[in-house]
Amino acid sequence: MSHNINVAGVSVDTRHWIGGERVASAGTFTDNSPIDGKSIGEIARGGPAEAQAAVAAAKAAFPSWAATPRAERARLLHAVADGVEKRIEELAIVETTDNGALLRSHRRGVMPRVAHNFRFFADWLLTLEHDDFETRGHTNRVSWDPAGPCVLITPWNAPLMLATWKVAPALAAGNTVVLKPAEWSPLTASLLADIAAEAGLPAGVLNVVQGYGAEIGDALTSHPDVRRISFTGSVPTARRIAASAAANLTPLSLELGGKSPLLVFADADLDLAVDLAVEQYDNAGQVCLAGTRLLVEESVVEEFTRRFVARATALRQGDPRDEATDIGPNIHPRQLEKIDGFVRRAVGAGARAVIGGHRQDGQFYEPTLLTDVAQDSEIVQEEVFGPVLTLQTFAGEEEGVRLANDTRFGLAATLVTGDPERAVRVTARLVAGTVWVNCFFVRDLQAPFGGSRLSGVGREGGTWSFDFYCDLKNTVTAPKGWNDHG
Protein backbone atom coordinates (compact mmCIF):
# COMPACT_ATOMS: atom_id res chain seq x y z
CA MET A 1 0.00 0.00 0.00
CA SER A 2 1.34 3.41 -0.99
CA HIS A 3 1.54 6.04 1.71
CA ASN A 4 1.90 8.86 -0.81
CA ILE A 5 -0.95 10.94 -2.14
CA ASN A 6 -0.98 13.12 -5.23
CA VAL A 7 -1.97 16.71 -4.48
CA ALA A 8 -2.26 18.72 -7.69
CA GLY A 9 0.72 16.83 -9.10
CA VAL A 10 2.78 16.96 -5.89
CA SER A 11 3.55 13.74 -4.02
CA VAL A 12 3.00 14.02 -0.26
CA ASP A 13 3.84 11.28 2.23
CA THR A 14 0.99 10.85 4.70
CA ARG A 15 3.03 9.14 7.42
CA HIS A 16 4.72 10.68 10.43
CA TRP A 17 8.39 11.69 10.34
CA ILE A 18 10.11 10.37 13.47
CA GLY A 19 13.83 9.94 14.04
CA GLY A 20 14.63 10.45 10.37
CA GLU A 21 12.21 7.79 9.14
CA ARG A 22 8.65 7.60 7.89
CA VAL A 23 6.39 5.88 10.42
CA ALA A 24 2.85 4.66 9.75
CA SER A 25 -0.01 4.36 12.24
CA ALA A 26 -2.67 1.70 12.64
CA GLY A 27 -5.38 4.29 12.08
CA THR A 28 -5.89 7.20 9.69
CA PHE A 29 -8.05 10.28 9.37
CA THR A 30 -9.44 11.86 6.22
CA ASP A 31 -8.09 15.19 5.04
CA ASN A 32 -10.64 17.08 2.92
CA SER A 33 -10.05 20.11 0.73
CA PRO A 34 -12.17 23.15 1.64
CA ILE A 35 -12.27 24.11 -2.03
CA ASP A 36 -14.70 21.33 -3.00
CA GLY A 37 -15.12 19.30 0.20
CA LYS A 38 -13.59 16.23 -1.41
CA SER A 39 -11.08 13.92 0.24
CA ILE A 40 -7.43 14.65 -0.46
CA GLY A 41 -6.29 11.47 1.24
CA GLU A 42 -5.94 9.43 4.41
CA ILE A 43 -3.41 10.73 6.94
CA ALA A 44 -1.60 8.68 9.59
CA ARG A 45 -3.46 9.18 12.87
CA GLY A 46 -1.00 9.21 15.72
CA GLY A 47 -1.62 8.72 19.42
CA PRO A 48 0.39 8.21 22.62
CA ALA A 49 2.74 5.67 21.01
CA GLU A 50 3.75 8.04 18.22
CA ALA A 51 4.07 10.91 20.69
CA GLN A 52 6.39 8.86 22.89
CA ALA A 53 8.48 7.80 19.90
CA ALA A 54 8.82 11.36 18.61
CA VAL A 55 9.87 12.78 21.97
CA ALA A 56 12.33 9.92 22.44
CA ALA A 57 13.85 10.65 19.02
CA ALA A 58 14.10 14.36 19.85
CA LYS A 59 15.71 13.59 23.23
CA ALA A 60 18.26 11.25 21.64
CA ALA A 61 19.20 13.82 18.99
CA PHE A 62 19.40 16.76 21.38
CA PRO A 63 22.93 16.44 22.85
CA SER A 64 24.63 16.34 19.46
CA TRP A 65 22.48 19.12 17.98
CA ALA A 66 22.92 21.34 21.04
CA ALA A 67 26.70 20.90 20.75
CA THR A 68 26.68 21.76 17.04
CA PRO A 69 28.47 25.10 16.56
CA ARG A 70 26.24 28.07 15.86
CA ALA A 71 27.70 28.57 12.39
CA GLU A 72 26.88 24.99 11.39
CA ARG A 73 23.33 25.21 12.72
CA ALA A 74 22.90 28.45 10.79
CA ARG A 75 24.26 26.84 7.62
CA LEU A 76 21.77 23.99 7.86
CA LEU A 77 18.86 26.37 8.43
CA HIS A 78 19.90 28.32 5.33
CA ALA A 79 19.97 24.99 3.47
CA VAL A 80 16.37 24.37 4.60
CA ALA A 81 15.45 27.84 3.32
CA ASP A 82 17.08 27.00 0.00
CA GLY A 83 14.94 23.86 -0.19
CA VAL A 84 11.79 25.85 0.53
CA GLU A 85 12.60 28.35 -2.21
CA LYS A 86 13.15 25.56 -4.73
CA ARG A 87 9.69 24.17 -3.94
CA ILE A 88 7.64 27.35 -3.52
CA GLU A 89 5.22 26.41 -6.29
CA GLU A 90 4.70 22.90 -4.87
CA LEU A 91 4.25 24.17 -1.33
CA ALA A 92 1.85 26.86 -2.51
CA ILE A 93 -0.50 24.55 -4.42
CA VAL A 94 -0.48 21.91 -1.67
CA GLU A 95 -1.30 24.46 1.02
CA THR A 96 -4.04 26.08 -1.05
CA THR A 97 -5.59 22.68 -1.71
CA ASP A 98 -5.35 21.80 1.97
CA ASN A 99 -6.55 24.99 3.68
CA GLY A 100 -8.24 27.06 0.95
CA ALA A 101 -6.15 30.23 1.21
CA LEU A 102 -5.37 32.15 -1.96
CA LEU A 103 -2.79 30.54 -4.23
CA ARG A 104 -1.51 33.93 -5.34
CA SER A 105 -0.82 34.85 -1.71
CA HIS A 106 1.01 31.59 -1.07
CA ARG A 107 3.17 32.06 -4.15
CA ARG A 108 4.08 35.69 -3.64
CA GLY A 109 4.03 36.20 0.10
CA VAL A 110 3.52 33.23 2.39
CA MET A 111 6.01 30.69 1.04
CA PRO A 112 8.79 33.25 0.52
CA ARG A 113 8.12 34.24 4.15
CA VAL A 114 8.58 30.59 5.18
CA ALA A 115 12.09 30.64 3.70
CA HIS A 116 12.73 34.02 5.34
CA ASN A 117 11.77 32.61 8.75
CA PHE A 118 14.68 30.15 8.53
CA ARG A 119 17.12 32.70 7.16
CA PHE A 120 16.24 35.35 9.72
CA PHE A 121 16.71 33.14 12.78
CA ALA A 122 19.85 31.55 11.32
CA ASP A 123 21.38 35.01 10.93
CA TRP A 124 20.05 36.28 14.26
CA LEU A 125 21.69 33.31 15.99
CA LEU A 126 25.10 34.41 14.73
CA THR A 127 24.70 37.89 16.23
CA LEU A 128 23.03 36.81 19.48
CA GLU A 129 25.01 38.24 22.37
CA HIS A 130 24.68 40.38 25.45
CA ASP A 131 27.30 42.89 26.45
CA ASP A 132 29.29 41.80 29.48
CA PHE A 133 28.80 43.94 32.55
CA GLU A 134 30.59 44.32 35.86
CA THR A 135 29.50 43.98 39.46
CA ARG A 136 32.14 45.16 41.98
CA GLY A 137 34.85 44.17 39.53
CA HIS A 138 33.31 40.79 38.71
CA THR A 139 32.38 40.11 35.08
CA ASN A 140 28.84 38.98 34.23
CA ARG A 141 28.43 37.08 30.98
CA VAL A 142 24.94 36.13 29.72
CA SER A 143 24.57 33.07 27.48
CA TRP A 144 21.68 31.25 25.83
CA ASP A 145 21.83 27.49 26.45
CA PRO A 146 19.65 25.10 24.40
CA ALA A 147 16.73 23.94 26.53
CA GLY A 148 15.92 20.51 25.07
CA PRO A 149 13.10 18.89 23.09
CA CYS A 150 10.33 21.31 22.13
CA VAL A 151 6.71 20.50 21.25
CA LEU A 152 5.27 22.93 18.72
CA ILE A 153 1.52 22.80 18.04
CA THR A 154 0.38 24.89 15.11
CA PRO A 155 -2.95 26.08 13.62
CA TRP A 156 -4.66 25.55 10.29
CA ASN A 157 -5.09 29.11 9.03
CA ALA A 158 -1.46 29.64 7.91
CA PRO A 159 -0.02 26.17 8.46
CA LEU A 160 3.54 26.30 7.17
CA MET A 161 4.30 29.94 7.85
CA LEU A 162 3.19 29.71 11.49
CA ALA A 163 4.91 26.34 11.94
CA THR A 164 8.24 27.67 10.71
CA TRP A 165 7.83 30.81 12.82
CA LYS A 166 8.29 28.37 15.74
CA VAL A 167 10.47 25.64 14.18
CA ALA A 168 13.17 28.03 12.92
CA PRO A 169 14.04 29.72 16.25
CA ALA A 170 13.70 26.47 18.20
CA LEU A 171 16.20 24.75 15.92
CA ALA A 172 18.46 27.80 15.75
CA ALA A 173 18.59 27.82 19.53
CA GLY A 174 19.97 24.27 19.50
CA ASN A 175 16.78 22.49 20.47
CA THR A 176 15.17 19.51 18.83
CA VAL A 177 11.55 19.67 17.75
CA VAL A 178 8.35 17.65 17.65
CA LEU A 179 5.94 19.50 15.35
CA LYS A 180 2.25 18.65 15.55
CA PRO A 181 0.34 20.37 12.70
CA ALA A 182 -3.41 20.98 12.78
CA GLU A 183 -5.40 17.98 11.59
CA TRP A 184 -7.35 20.14 9.12
CA SER A 185 -4.17 21.16 7.25
CA PRO A 186 -1.31 18.71 7.83
CA LEU A 187 0.23 18.35 4.39
CA THR A 188 2.91 21.04 4.13
CA ALA A 189 4.39 19.95 7.47
CA SER A 190 5.09 16.60 5.84
CA LEU A 191 6.78 18.35 2.91
CA LEU A 192 8.84 20.39 5.39
CA ALA A 193 10.16 17.13 6.86
CA ASP A 194 11.30 16.08 3.38
CA ILE A 195 12.95 19.44 2.77
CA ALA A 196 14.75 19.35 6.14
CA ALA A 197 16.06 15.84 5.49
CA GLU A 198 17.29 16.82 2.02
CA ALA A 199 19.03 19.85 3.56
CA GLY A 200 21.00 17.54 5.85
CA LEU A 201 19.26 18.14 9.16
CA PRO A 202 20.30 15.20 11.38
CA ALA A 203 17.78 12.48 12.19
CA GLY A 204 15.60 13.28 15.20
CA VAL A 205 16.25 17.02 15.16
CA LEU A 206 12.90 17.67 13.46
CA ASN A 207 10.01 15.24 13.97
CA VAL A 208 6.47 15.63 12.59
CA VAL A 209 3.51 13.77 14.07
CA GLN A 210 -0.11 14.00 12.94
CA GLY A 211 -3.29 13.28 14.83
CA TYR A 212 -6.49 14.58 16.32
CA GLY A 213 -6.21 17.04 19.20
CA ALA A 214 -5.99 15.46 22.60
CA GLU A 215 -5.48 11.97 21.17
CA ILE A 216 -1.84 12.81 20.62
CA GLY A 217 -1.60 16.28 22.13
CA ASP A 218 -1.98 15.26 25.77
CA ALA A 219 0.84 12.73 25.47
CA LEU A 220 3.10 15.39 23.96
CA THR A 221 2.35 18.24 26.35
CA SER A 222 2.51 16.12 29.52
CA HIS A 223 5.77 14.37 28.61
CA PRO A 224 8.46 14.91 31.26
CA ASP A 225 11.26 15.09 28.66
CA VAL A 226 9.69 18.06 26.86
CA ARG A 227 11.39 21.32 27.84
CA ARG A 228 9.32 23.87 25.91
CA ILE A 229 5.80 24.02 24.47
CA SER A 230 4.70 26.63 21.94
CA PHE A 231 1.07 26.70 20.86
CA THR A 232 -1.01 28.87 18.54
CA GLY A 233 -4.76 28.33 18.66
CA SER A 234 -7.84 28.72 20.81
CA VAL A 235 -8.16 29.69 24.45
CA PRO A 236 -9.94 26.45 25.51
CA THR A 237 -7.18 24.31 23.97
CA ALA A 238 -4.52 26.51 25.59
CA ARG A 239 -6.10 25.94 28.99
CA ARG A 240 -5.92 22.18 28.43
CA ILE A 241 -2.29 22.40 27.34
CA ALA A 242 -1.38 24.56 30.33
CA ALA A 243 -3.00 22.07 32.70
CA SER A 244 -1.18 19.21 30.99
CA ALA A 245 2.18 20.99 31.19
CA ALA A 246 1.72 22.05 34.81
CA ALA A 247 2.87 18.78 36.37
CA ASN A 248 6.33 19.22 34.84
CA LEU A 249 6.35 23.04 35.01
CA THR A 250 7.12 23.06 31.29
CA PRO A 251 7.48 26.66 30.05
CA LEU A 252 4.76 27.73 27.63
CA SER A 253 4.41 30.26 24.84
CA LEU A 254 0.76 30.74 23.89
CA GLU A 255 -0.53 32.84 20.99
CA LEU A 256 -4.30 32.72 21.23
CA GLY A 257 -7.42 34.39 19.95
CA GLY A 258 -8.14 38.00 19.22
CA LYS A 259 -11.04 40.39 18.97
CA SER A 260 -9.04 43.33 17.79
CA PRO A 261 -10.35 46.86 17.23
CA LEU A 262 -9.82 49.03 14.18
CA LEU A 263 -10.32 52.64 15.27
CA VAL A 264 -11.09 55.28 12.64
CA PHE A 265 -11.00 58.89 13.79
CA ALA A 266 -12.68 61.73 11.96
CA ASP A 267 -9.30 63.19 10.98
CA ALA A 268 -8.27 59.94 9.23
CA ASP A 269 -7.67 59.46 5.53
CA LEU A 270 -10.99 57.70 4.85
CA ASP A 271 -9.78 55.94 1.72
CA LEU A 272 -6.91 54.46 3.72
CA ALA A 273 -9.27 53.56 6.56
CA VAL A 274 -11.63 51.76 4.18
CA ASP A 275 -8.75 49.91 2.51
CA LEU A 276 -7.51 48.71 5.90
CA ALA A 277 -11.02 47.73 6.99
CA VAL A 278 -11.70 45.69 3.86
CA GLU A 279 -8.32 43.99 4.31
CA GLN A 280 -9.71 42.38 7.45
CA TYR A 281 -11.55 39.92 5.19
CA ASP A 282 -8.19 38.46 4.14
CA ASN A 283 -7.98 34.65 4.26
CA ALA A 284 -11.79 34.52 4.58
CA GLY A 285 -11.45 36.27 7.94
CA GLN A 286 -9.38 33.43 9.37
CA VAL A 287 -6.64 35.67 10.78
CA CYS A 288 -6.05 35.94 14.51
CA LEU A 289 -4.79 39.52 14.18
CA ALA A 290 -7.78 40.78 12.18
CA GLY A 291 -9.37 44.03 13.31
CA THR A 292 -12.89 42.61 13.32
CA ARG A 293 -14.40 45.40 15.44
CA LEU A 294 -14.65 48.54 13.32
CA LEU A 295 -14.94 51.56 15.64
CA VAL A 296 -15.62 54.72 13.64
CA GLU A 297 -16.03 58.25 14.96
CA GLU A 298 -19.70 59.06 14.55
CA SER A 299 -19.21 62.24 12.51
CA VAL A 300 -17.72 60.24 9.58
CA VAL A 301 -19.46 56.89 9.94
CA GLU A 302 -21.98 57.52 7.17
CA GLU A 303 -19.31 58.32 4.58
CA PHE A 304 -17.04 55.53 5.84
CA THR A 305 -19.86 53.00 5.55
CA ARG A 306 -20.77 54.12 2.04
CA ARG A 307 -17.20 53.71 0.81
CA PHE A 308 -16.71 50.44 2.71
CA VAL A 309 -19.82 48.85 1.20
CA ALA A 310 -18.73 49.84 -2.31
CA ARG A 311 -15.31 48.27 -1.79
CA ALA A 312 -16.38 45.16 0.10
CA THR A 313 -19.18 44.19 -2.27
CA ALA A 314 -16.71 44.32 -5.15
CA LEU A 315 -14.60 41.56 -3.62
CA ARG A 316 -14.64 38.38 -5.68
CA GLN A 317 -15.31 35.18 -3.78
CA GLY A 318 -14.50 31.82 -5.33
CA ASP A 319 -11.87 29.23 -6.14
CA PRO A 320 -8.65 30.27 -4.36
CA ARG A 321 -6.59 28.88 -7.25
CA ASP A 322 -8.04 31.54 -9.54
CA GLU A 323 -5.79 34.60 -9.76
CA ALA A 324 -8.84 36.91 -9.73
CA THR A 325 -10.30 35.54 -6.47
CA ASP A 326 -10.13 37.77 -3.39
CA ILE A 327 -11.78 35.50 -0.80
CA GLY A 328 -11.64 31.72 -0.74
CA PRO A 329 -13.58 29.16 1.31
CA ASN A 330 -13.56 28.64 5.03
CA ILE A 331 -11.50 25.73 6.23
CA HIS A 332 -14.09 23.16 7.36
CA PRO A 333 -17.86 22.60 7.55
CA ARG A 334 -17.61 22.80 11.33
CA GLN A 335 -15.99 26.23 11.11
CA LEU A 336 -18.60 27.39 8.59
CA GLU A 337 -21.38 26.30 10.93
CA LYS A 338 -19.71 28.18 13.78
CA ILE A 339 -19.51 31.38 11.71
CA ASP A 340 -23.13 31.09 10.59
CA GLY A 341 -24.24 30.47 14.16
CA PHE A 342 -22.57 33.66 15.37
CA VAL A 343 -24.28 35.72 12.67
CA ARG A 344 -27.71 34.15 13.10
CA ARG A 345 -27.63 34.72 16.85
CA ALA A 346 -26.47 38.31 16.38
CA VAL A 347 -29.24 39.10 13.89
CA GLY A 348 -31.73 37.42 16.19
CA ALA A 349 -30.59 39.74 18.98
CA GLY A 350 -31.18 42.85 16.84
CA ALA A 351 -28.03 43.26 14.72
CA ARG A 352 -28.45 44.41 11.12
CA ALA A 353 -26.44 42.96 8.24
CA VAL A 354 -25.29 45.91 6.14
CA ILE A 355 -23.76 43.41 3.71
CA GLY A 356 -23.63 39.62 3.68
CA GLY A 357 -25.00 37.55 6.51
CA HIS A 358 -25.47 34.25 4.69
CA ARG A 359 -23.56 31.08 3.94
CA GLN A 360 -23.20 30.14 0.29
CA ASP A 361 -22.76 26.90 -1.59
CA GLY A 362 -19.84 24.78 -0.47
CA GLN A 363 -17.70 26.15 2.35
CA PHE A 364 -18.09 29.83 1.52
CA TYR A 365 -19.49 32.57 3.72
CA GLU A 366 -20.35 36.01 2.40
CA PRO A 367 -18.21 38.93 3.59
CA THR A 368 -20.44 40.34 6.31
CA LEU A 369 -20.73 43.65 8.16
CA LEU A 370 -23.04 43.85 11.15
CA THR A 371 -24.20 47.06 12.80
CA ASP A 372 -26.62 47.88 15.64
CA VAL A 373 -24.63 45.60 17.95
CA ALA A 374 -24.36 45.99 21.71
CA GLN A 375 -20.93 46.24 23.29
CA ASP A 376 -21.62 43.31 25.62
CA SER A 377 -23.07 41.09 22.88
CA GLU A 378 -21.50 37.79 21.85
CA ILE A 379 -20.70 39.02 18.34
CA VAL A 380 -18.64 41.90 19.75
CA GLN A 381 -16.97 39.97 22.54
CA GLU A 382 -16.14 36.54 21.04
CA GLU A 383 -13.81 35.57 18.19
CA VAL A 384 -15.73 34.45 15.10
CA PHE A 385 -12.72 33.60 12.89
CA GLY A 386 -14.57 34.16 9.66
CA PRO A 387 -15.38 37.03 7.25
CA VAL A 388 -17.58 38.86 9.76
CA LEU A 389 -16.96 42.42 10.98
CA THR A 390 -18.97 44.59 13.34
CA LEU A 391 -19.40 48.36 13.08
CA GLN A 392 -19.83 50.63 16.11
CA THR A 393 -19.48 54.36 16.56
CA PHE A 394 -17.86 56.52 19.22
CA ALA A 395 -18.22 60.21 20.04
CA GLY A 396 -14.63 61.04 20.93
CA GLU A 397 -11.21 59.76 21.86
CA GLU A 398 -12.11 58.70 25.39
CA GLU A 399 -15.06 56.57 24.28
CA GLY A 400 -13.10 55.12 21.36
CA VAL A 401 -10.32 53.87 23.63
CA ARG A 402 -12.82 52.51 26.16
CA LEU A 403 -14.66 50.49 23.51
CA ALA A 404 -11.39 49.29 21.97
CA ASN A 405 -10.18 47.88 25.29
CA ASP A 406 -13.52 46.44 26.38
CA THR A 407 -12.98 42.74 25.63
CA ARG A 408 -11.14 39.83 27.29
CA PHE A 409 -8.57 39.86 24.49
CA GLY A 410 -5.56 42.00 23.63
CA LEU A 411 -3.75 40.64 20.61
CA ALA A 412 -3.64 43.61 18.25
CA ALA A 413 -5.17 46.98 17.44
CA THR A 414 -5.22 49.21 14.38
CA LEU A 415 -5.51 52.99 14.61
CA VAL A 416 -6.25 55.31 11.66
CA THR A 417 -5.75 59.01 12.33
CA GLY A 418 -4.20 62.06 10.72
CA ASP A 419 -3.06 63.48 14.06
CA PRO A 420 0.40 62.23 15.17
CA GLU A 421 -0.13 63.43 18.73
CA ARG A 422 -3.42 61.55 18.97
CA ALA A 423 -1.67 58.43 17.64
CA VAL A 424 0.84 58.61 20.48
CA ARG A 425 -1.84 59.21 23.12
CA VAL A 426 -4.17 56.46 21.96
CA THR A 427 -1.46 53.89 21.30
CA ALA A 428 -0.19 54.31 24.86
CA ARG A 429 -3.64 53.44 26.22
CA LEU A 430 -4.53 50.49 23.98
CA VAL A 431 -4.22 47.00 25.48
CA ALA A 432 -2.59 44.99 22.70
CA GLY A 433 0.58 43.09 21.88
CA THR A 434 0.84 44.87 18.52
CA VAL A 435 -0.56 48.26 17.50
CA TRP A 436 -0.56 49.41 13.87
CA VAL A 437 -0.92 53.11 13.11
CA ASN A 438 -2.21 53.89 9.60
CA CYS A 439 -1.15 50.42 8.41
CA PHE A 440 -1.92 46.75 9.02
CA PHE A 441 -0.09 43.41 9.17
CA VAL A 442 3.41 44.87 8.93
CA ARG A 443 5.51 42.36 10.89
CA ASP A 444 9.25 42.35 11.38
CA LEU A 445 10.69 39.13 12.82
CA GLN A 446 12.97 41.07 15.16
CA ALA A 447 9.96 42.62 16.95
CA PRO A 448 8.23 40.93 19.90
CA PHE A 449 4.98 39.22 19.03
CA GLY A 450 2.27 37.96 21.35
CA GLY A 451 -0.90 38.96 23.13
CA SER A 452 -2.19 40.43 26.36
CA ARG A 453 -5.05 39.16 28.51
CA LEU A 454 -6.60 36.00 26.99
CA SER A 455 -4.73 36.56 23.75
CA GLY A 456 -1.66 34.81 25.02
CA VAL A 457 1.31 34.30 27.28
CA GLY A 458 4.84 35.38 26.39
CA ARG A 459 6.49 36.94 23.36
CA GLU A 460 8.40 35.48 20.42
CA GLY A 461 10.45 37.16 17.70
CA GLY A 462 14.10 38.21 17.51
CA THR A 463 15.90 37.82 20.82
CA TRP A 464 12.58 37.16 22.57
CA SER A 465 12.36 33.84 20.71
CA PHE A 466 15.78 32.80 21.96
CA ASP A 467 14.88 33.93 25.47
CA PHE A 468 11.96 31.49 25.35
CA TYR A 469 13.60 28.57 23.56
CA CYS A 470 16.77 28.73 25.69
CA ASP A 471 17.81 28.52 29.32
CA LEU A 472 19.48 31.84 30.01
CA LYS A 473 22.63 31.58 32.08
CA ASN A 474 24.63 34.30 33.79
CA THR A 475 28.27 33.44 34.52
CA VAL A 476 30.01 35.62 37.11
CA THR A 477 33.84 35.59 37.06
CA ALA A 478 36.09 37.00 39.76
CA PRO A 479 38.45 39.78 38.64
CA LYS A 480 41.76 38.04 39.41
CA GLY A 481 41.05 34.46 38.45
CA TRP A 482 39.37 31.51 40.10
CA ASN A 483 41.77 30.94 43.01
CA ASP A 484 42.68 34.46 44.02
CA HIS A 485 40.59 35.57 47.02
CA GLY A 486 42.72 38.60 47.75
Structural class: alpha/beta
Question: Number of helical segments?
Answer: 15
Overall pLDDT confidence: 96
Major sheet, described briefly? 7 strands, mixed
Structure summary, number of beta strands? 24
Quick description:
With 486 residues, this protein is α/β, with parallel strands linked by helices. It contains 15 helices and 24 strands.
How would you sum up this structure, described in words?
By secondary structure, the chain is α/β, with parallel strands linked by helices. 39% of the residues lie in helices and 21% in strands. The chain has helices at residues 48-67, 70-86, 88-99, 103-127, 159-172, 187-199, 213-221, 235-246, 270-278, 301-312, 333-348, 378-381, 397-405, 420-429, 462-469; strands at 4-7, 10-13, 16-18, 21-23, 28-32, 39-44, 133-135, 138-146, 150-153, 177-180, 206-208, 228-232, 252-255, 261-264, 293-297, 352-355, 368-371, 388-394, 409-410, 412-416, 434-437, 452-453, 456-457, 470-477. A 7-stranded mixed β-sheet has the order 16-17-18-15-14-20-21, with helices on both faces. The protein has a 6-stranded mixed β-sheet with strand order 11-10-9-12-13-23, sandwiched between helices. Strands 7-8-24 form a 3-stranded antiparallel β-sheet. β9 (150-153), α5 and β10 form a beta-alpha-beta unit. The longest helix is centred in the N-terminal third of the chain and has 25 residues, at 103-127. It is globular and about 65 Å long. It starts with a strand and ends in a 9-residue tail after the last strand.
